[in-house]
Write a structure and sequence with these properties.
heterotrimer, A alpha+beta (about 575), B mainly alpha (about 325), C mainly alpha (about 325), B: mainly alpha, MetI-like fold, 2 domains, 14 helices, C: MetI-like fold, 12 helices
Chain lengths: ~575, ~325, ~325
């Protein structure tokens, strides 16, 4: 089983080359300007406008982008993300080997790394973190607390009903950690690049009682650790969090193991309203922000700001309710494949991509972007054809079918910049094809997500940004068999054994090229069955002022600010 | 005077009790009841049962109410669903900002409104008069959030004169003592921080103060016009008193009575306006917290904040009543 | 008396007492007629009335007046992020962010704004009046209970009240109207009660009582009709408030979820996202709201002056 480490090492070599090249490029540019010295200027404070407050700063309990945005600066995992790409690359591990059977991973750790509290990063610390996750109890085991751990490892020591695929972690010496799994999965080790699997200081975790969650599942109160003392190895240290004003302040980690970060300080300031973020950038109160409205790309560039467009690594889809969620009234019309096909043919994806989404957006043919291994170029496609849609609907005897169409409010997602506009266009398309639409608008979190999960919608808008380059992270998240024998409720809880089997098989396939083929097959099956309509892949953008340099947009929205500098 | 105040304070009790009943009923009436409100729609029946038991929701209603009341009296409204922090703690942290903002808005409205209304009345029929009348009508008719956007677009973005969001420039490292930022700056002698915090009040304060300003201009103008025609003013004039004396002693003083009533009224309305203004200006006060809580369906915060704001509102009105008593001897006699 | 909103209450009561003063007539001319005469002579009233009438006509005949289907996304394919076509032949005010004719949307939107204004004000008036009559006619403990209740509602700032109601009732256009109506109830209740109380001791009521006329008849036949004028004034002013408040609730995301129904408040708050691309999208609905609110305010103020005996000297 030599293929895996080679791949990662190759990727890391590529990344190194990229870094070197970037360094050359930047020094060229600087010397071109003359006088200012050969390298990017160090020092200064960067104020970055975030769309929401982090939930807390212990990434093990995080699942949302705003939490991870801050956590990525403070914490690091065994693996990280390739700069500006989607491949996992070594971070706190220098490399790793995997056993023949694909169950034992030996990580060779970076040496001389210390946590922000001065304690050493070593194999003991790695195992402490793995054991910590595995031994979560009580509220910490609820999906709202440890979503990613459960998505990758399954259950916990305390939940024998849902076993974990984690078996053990052993520190064989100071800088070697051996992790054993109970079954092969394509998610491991790529998933270790997720912020949720950051290695944090064991001493700080214990001292500030990190696992002490209180409250209730949907109103978690976090520990002192998560709110006041997050301690990792990353380029920036946590300084303070002013909750009243939504400001998280981080300062440079002087003892960082890698290239010293350039900024003295980063302040993440929460400005929920997109319009306010733009105006604050224009007035100079902040130096950059995320989730630029597509309407503003051009005008911001005209004003001299740098709009950094990420490669699209997401999917927006129209989800259906397959009707198997207990306790909900499903729309029987959606059980009919012809009705589902009618919906797919009714939607004018070209116009949506051209008129509503930023330049660079693409219409989707399947539930993952083309850059992910496993994307198939020969899936069944459903072109915009309102006549065909009407005809299919007629054949199904379902003209005038009423669909409860749920859409979120008060939110802008990387794949869905303006939900209300998207809703109105699709709604009009469906009406034109002969459906009757009953609109339901709910605030994104928690109402909308809850309602969709609970199967209240007939059709709904939802999407996903990939966590790392892996097909299962897309279609497995959506369509794999959940514990109750159905697909996840967000996907209308349909039961299609063929798709379930194809996904499970691919996930357990250790050989990469065989796996890719299996995922392609799964995609074909999915697009034949049509459990929802994939709509688009959209490139989200960040914007920074013209005096900010070195911010590399990441398709995963996983920007790390260590290479960023700011001039006066 | 003391008896007057004490009596008024005692009269607060039934109002607050009534309010607590209303808010209790409100939380009970939410779709799915408090358990679902707290746990979300995905909650399993077991989880709901557990929650009900934990919070005594399986008890008879009056027992639940008394418990709720008991906790409310101790200012315990539970934890925010969004941040997991005690509701009261968040309120106390954010209230100073709202008070600062409201004060600024009120001072702006009074400071500009009374002189403007007085001048308009003195030059009755002049262009100043008509402009102030039209202006004040427009002020009331413009949606607050739209005005806020316009102000920010003009003064923060286009002209760059004033900060357009927040309570303090984040790059200023200010010491916090009371959470009244201007005051903090003065107390710690961080003059730049105090000045910066003050500048941050200007745009939201003006947006918030526009409606009261418009109303105060109108009322001042009307009551000055009224008073000028009163017999005692005519008498005073006839007696040969200096115009300035007549104005100071008789016109202004008497004209201010209805104005002070209006000021009291408007202070309460400002708390409503603060939700909109603070949201537009990303101003970390109570209003923007309520806005966030609406979307996060953070019922604990909504309930606690609304009850506590209502108490503030009632107390402000009490203060106004007392000051009214000081201004107008007739009120005290009752 | 309690301390809550004492000042606010006193102001409402003052208004009520003034308007409730028994009409003496002017040389035999009825109150209504003399009021109307004064109105006609007041240019402000005329301006207000013209605005209101135009608004009502546009709202009533909106489907006929609108040149296009306000929902048809006609020019959608010409829209690009950051570009919305402006005024052009067939689209005098240009189109919105989904390629729909802005003029038609404004015209049809007047209906929804009118509906929200009228329904919520009516609801507020009816419930408020019922409470006021109850308190004013019976007095005693009924009065105390009703007025305490009204005081409690008054003690919650109005927008917070509206928010609580919207959250409770879920997001639809009716809950929006109810939310606005609830904030109006206490005003009308106090107003009516005050003006009825003011008449209680008046000569004609005493005379009627002496004649042995039943209380119900006195209340409904004499006192109530005489107390209506401040209610009419306040209702006119409340219409303006309701339209503005609807815009505010839309902005807070508590508006009508059916985006297919054009409504000025929703159009205005939605257009904030396109301020940099095409500010007209915000300016037009804002102007509509301001002008209509202004119209109702002018008319209401003029009515108040016309009906107020104090101005009749």
């Amino acid at each position: 089983m030599q293929r895996r480490p080679q791949r990662v090492l190759a990727a890391s070599a590529a990344a190194l080359t990229a870094v070197t090249l970037a360094a050359c490029a930047s020094s060229d540019r600087d010397s071109g300007e003359g006088g200012e010295g050969g390298e990017a200027q160090s020092g200064g404070t960067l104020v970055f406008g975030a769309a929401g407050d982090p939930a807390m700063l212990d990434p093990a309990f995080g699942s949302d982008g705003e939490t991870f945005r801050v956590a990525r600066q403070i914490h690091e995992g065994l693996l990280g993300n390739e700069l500006g790409g989607t491949e996992p690359v070594p971070e706190l591990a220098e490399d790793y080997e995997v056993s023949e059977d694909g169950l034992e991973y030996t990580f060779n750790l970076r040496q001389g790394v210390t946590f922000h509290d001065g304690t050493d990063f070593n194999a003991e610390a790695v195992c402490f973190n793995f054991d910590r996750w595995y031994n979560f109890e009580g509220l910490a085991t609820s999906p709202s607390a440890s979503y990613y751990y459960q998505a990758v490892f399954g259950g916990f020591a305390s939940t024998p009903d849902t076993p974990s695929i984690y078996e053990s972690c052993e520190a064989t010496d100071e800088s070697t950690a051996v992790i054993r799994l109970t079954q092969v999965t394509s998610k491991f080790p790529s998933a270790l690049a997720l912020p949720a699997f950051s290695i944090q200081s064991p001493e700080a975790l214990q001292q500030y009682d990190a696992d002490n969650l209180s409250g209730s599942e949907d109103a978690l109160s976090y520990s002192e650790y998560a709110l006041e003392h997050p301690t990792g190895t990353g380029p920036f240290r946590f300084e303070s969090w002013d909750r009243g004003n939504g400001e998280v302040t981080l300062v440079r980690n002087e003892d960082y193991w890698g290239d010293a970060p350039l900024l003295d300080e980063i302040i993440f300031r929460t400005i929920p309203d997109g319009n306010t973020r733009r105006q604050e950038l224009q007035s100079g109160a902040i130096d950059g922000y995320d989730f630029v409205a597509p309407a503003d790309y051009q005008s911001l560039e005209d004003d001299g700001f740098q709009v950094l467009v990420r490669d699209p690594f997401n999917i927006l889809y129209l989800g259906f309710n397959g009707g198997n969620v207990p306790g909900t009234q499903a729309n029987p019309a959606l059980q009919n494949p012809q009705v589902r096909q009618a919906i797919a043919h009714a939607i004018d994806r070209e116009t949506i991509v051209n008129s509503l989404l930023p330049e660079g957006a693409e219409a989707a043919t399947q539930f993952m972007p083309p850059t992910v291994d496993g994307w198939a170029d020969d899936v069944t496609t459903y072109d915009y054809d309102p006549d065909r849609a009407r005809q299919l609907l007629q054949e199904a005897g379902a003209e005038g079918t009423t669909l409860r169409f749920y859409y979120p409010t008060e939110v802008s997602r990387p794949y869905l910049p303006d939900p209300a506009a998207m809703f109105q266009v699709i709604s009009q398309n469906l009406t034109d094809a002969g459906f009757t639409i009953e609109p339901v608008a709910l605030p994104w979190n928690p109402d909308y997500l809850n309602a969709v999960q609970a199967g209240q919608a007939d059709i709904h808008l939802l999407g996903w940004t990939g966590d790392y380059n892996d097909a299962y992270n897309f279609i497995g998240t959506f369509f794999a068999e959940a514990s109750n024998g159905q697909a996840s409720a967000e996907f209308g809880a349909f039961s299609n054994p063929e798709i379930f089997a194809a996904l499970a098989e691919a996930d357990a396939e250790p050989d990469a090229s065989a796996r890719t083929e299996q995922y392609q097959e799964a995609n074909r099956l999915i697009m034949d069955y049509l459990p929802g309509v994939p709509i688009s892949h959209s490139p989200p953008a960040l914007v920074v002022a013209d005096n900010v340099e070195g911010l590399e947009p990441s398709p995963l929205t996983a920007e790390v600010f260590s290479t960023v500098s700011i001039t006066d | 005077m003391l008896r007057f105040v004490v009596r008024r304070l005692l009269q607060l009790i039934p109002i607050l009790l009534g309010l607590s009943v209303l808010l209790f009923a409100w939380l009970r009436a939410l779709p799915g009841g408090p358990a679902q409100a707290a746990l979300g729609e995905r909650a399993t029946p077991e989880a709901i049962a557990r929650y009900n038991e934990l919070f005594g929701l399986d008890q008879p209603l009056y027992v639940q109410y008394l418990r709720f009341l008991g906790r409310a009296v101790q200012l315990d409204f539970g934890n925010s669903a969004r941040t997991g922090r005690p509701v009261t703690e968040e309120f106390l942290e954010r209230m100073p900002g709202t008070i600062e903002l409201t004060l600024f808005a009120m001072v702006f409205a009074i400071g500009v409104g009374i002189p403007l209304g007085y001048l308009a009345a003195r030059r009755h029929g002049s262009w100043l008069d008509s402009t102030s009348v039209v202006g004040s009508l427009l002020g009331v008719a413009t949606p607050v959030f739209f005005l806020a956007y316009l102000l920010r677009l003009l003064f923060a973005v286009e002209l760059g004169w004033l900060p357009g969001s927040g309570r303090q420039e984040v790059r200023i490292d200010a010491t916090r003592i009371t959470n009244f930022y201007v005051l903090d700056g003065l107390l710690t002698r961080e003059w730049d921080a105090a000045w910066d915090a003050f500048l941050h009040l200007v745009l939201p304060g003006i947006a918030l103060g526009t409606i009261p300003l418009a109303i105060i201009v109108r009322i001042t103008r009307a009551s000055v016009l009224d008073v000028v025609n009163e017999d005692y003013v005519r008498t005073a004039n006839a007696k040969g008193l200096a115009t300035a004396t007549v104005r100071r002693r008789h016109v202004i003083r008497n004209a201010l009575l209805p104005v002070s009533t209006t000021i009291g009224l408007q202070t309460g309305l400002l708390l409503s306006g603060a939700v909109l203004t603070e949201t537009v200006f990303a101003f970390g006060g109570v209003g923007s917290a309520i806005f966030d809580a609406i979307f996060a369906r953070d019922f604990a915060v909504l309930q606690g904040f609304i009850l506590m704001l209502a108490v503030v509102y009632v107390l402000v009105n009490l203060l106004v009543d007392i000051s009214y008593g000081l201004l107008d001897p007739r009120v005290r006699v009752r | 008396m309690s301390a809550v909103g004492d000042v606010r209450r006193r102001r409402i009561d003052e208004l009520a007492a003034r308007a409730g003063q028994v009409p003496e007539g002017e040389g035999g001319v009825s109150l209504t007629r003399s009021a109307f005469r004064r109105l006609r002579r007041n240019p402000v009233a005329i301006l207000g009335a013209v605005i209101v009438v135009v608004f009502l006509v546009v709202a009533a005949f909106a489907p006929l007046l609108a040149p296009r289907d306000p929902l048809a996304q006609t020019l959608l394919s010409e829209i690009r992020p950051g570009f919305i076509p402006g005024s052009q032949p067939g689209f005098p005010l240009g189109v919105d962010e989904l390629g729909r004719d802005l003029l038609s949307r404004l015209i049809v939107g007047s209906r929804q704004s009118l509906l929200i204004g009228v329904v919520s004000t009516l609801l507020g008036v009816v419930v408020g009046m019922a409470l006021g009559v109850l308190a004013g006619a019976f007095g005693g403990w009924v009065d105390t209970v009703v007025m305490r209740f009204v005081d409690i509602i008054l003690s919650i700032p109005s927008l917070l009240m509206a928010i609580s109601i919207s959250v409770l009732l879920g997001q639809n256009q009716w809950s929006l109207m109810i939310a606005i109506a609830v904030t109006q109830v206490p005003v009308f209740a106090r107003l009516l009660r005050g003006s009825m109380l003011a008449q209680r001791g008046s000569d004609y009521v005493l005379a009627a009582q002496a004649l042995g006329i039943r209380r119900r008849r006195i209340v409904f036949g004499h006192v109530l009709p005489n107390s209506l004028s401040p209610v009419i004034v306040q209702a006119t002013l409340s219409l303006a408030t309701a339209i503005i408040e609807a815009a505010a609730l839309s902005f807070l995301g508590l508006g009508d979820p059916d985006l297919a129904r054009p409504e000025w408040g929703a159009m205005l708050s939605n257009a904030q996202d396109f301020l940099s691309v095409r500010p007209e999208l915000a300016i037009y609905p804002a102007v509509c709201i301001i002008v209509v609110a202004l119209g109702f305010t002018l008319l209401g103020e003029a009515l108040r002056e016309a009906l107020d005996p104090k101005f009749r000297r």
